[in-house]
């Protein structure tokens, strides 16, 4: 039951965050906002404007990436069991997330950053869904044993 509560809180939290920074509601909106569209001829003014737009995109994707990182750290709280070496999965996941974010730290292409953020968000949601399902199965298993 605790996991079900987490899921509803997580959904509310994501919804509130979207309202705070006016983020995209769907992956398509995220792609439309951040994918750089090719233009034919550019003048100096257009280059300056394009640079300004790229900075805005990077600021927005930076915000999205930080939000994703925080969500990953929050989600690792549920991985409390150790691996075969006795190290908690929570710690391993946090180290790997940190390493991957550090590796992509200097990426400046908004399209690549957007792909990374979308991939990370999908992986996180998939992982959370799997953990919730395993927790449900374990609860059902425990209930059946008690009967």
TrEMBL record:
Residues 63-125 form the Complex 1 LYR protein domain. PANTHER family: COMPLEX 1 PROTEIN CONTAINING PROTEIN, EXPRESSED. This is Complex 1 LYR protein domain-containing protein. One of its GO terms (biological process) is mitochondrial respiratory chain complex III assembly. It holds the Pfam family Complex1_LYR. It comes from the Eukaryota. Signal peptide: none annotated. GO terms for cellular component: mitochondrion.
